[in-house]
Amino acid sequence: METVDVYRITDRLDDSTLEALVTRLESRGKHPRFTKMMDDYFDAMKIESAATVLDLGCGTGVAARRIARRTGFAGHITGIDVSPHLTAAAKHLASAEGFESVTEFRTGDSQALNLPDASFDAVVAHTLISHVQHPLAVLREIARVVKPEGVVGIFDGDYASLTFGSDDPLQGKIDDETIINAIVTNPRVMRQIPGLLRDAGFELSVSFSYVVADIGHADFWTSAIQSFRRLLPKAGAMTESVAQSWADTMFKRSEQGVFFGASNYYSFVARRH
Ligand SMILES: C[S@@+](CC[C@H](N)C(=O)[O-])C[C@H]1O[C@@H](n2cnc3c(N)ncnc32)[C@H](O)[C@@H]1O
User: Fold this and answer.
1) Whose CA is nearest to atom 15 of ligand 1?
2) Residue 174: pLDDT over 80
3) CB of 58 closer than 6 angstroms to any ligand 1 atom
4) Which CATH superfamily is domain 6-157+185-211+265-272 in?
5) pTM score
């Protein structure tokens, strides 16, 4: 069976796998290291001053809710995701937090948006671009739907750098590559974004870079490893027993204080010509 990025096929996954994704995305979305990375580029975008915001690949609406609760925000946020299950979860979670009237969540493909030209002041793609088949198509669609002088924020992991420590470095390299292929489509896309932004008609304003590393004990990476027990077999990357055993080993290393897990993350803020 060929390995496929599970986050690219969320319109075709069964409900229990989608619930594992909801758990993972919500857990990651609450982690202070993740919220800090969001806030850095939202600050640079001055997103609270936007009247209309588009959140592409919104998943459960983590970014949309973060924007909605920013001081001074008085706009409206449209979230788009390819998965009806995830947009339903996003709607429910936004309502539960009192953001029903300022948010709407719809199903759609970011590579071919069913949205009018020049209709948004700001667009974010928060951990979407590494999952789509055609990243430039997404950026061209953003260029179409954002207003002239509108602002865009692209954030994602540089997943080619994702790595977990192992006693056996050669097996560790194999496992890293297996995991990367199961959870992303474009592990090196963040290295292409400056050029793709230019090609789509944007001018890069600022970028942020991070190494998110847990050394000794798992923390940020805990929810990822938990999700891998279910996602790696779904992706066709590992059998259930191999995925369980890999996750058990990671948590054992964490208990022993010898865990290592890391990935680089980047965000790019750009303006439409
Ligand atoms: C890693 S999740 C990120 C979700 C959310 N932005 C967050 O940070 O929690 C990637 C999301 O992109 C969605 N997705 C994948 N391909 C898509 C596409 N072509 N158009 C719209 N959404 C897509 C998936 O369904 C998934 O919710």
Assistant:
1) 8
2) yes
3) yes
4) Vaccinia Virus protein VP39 (3.40.50.150)
5) 0.98
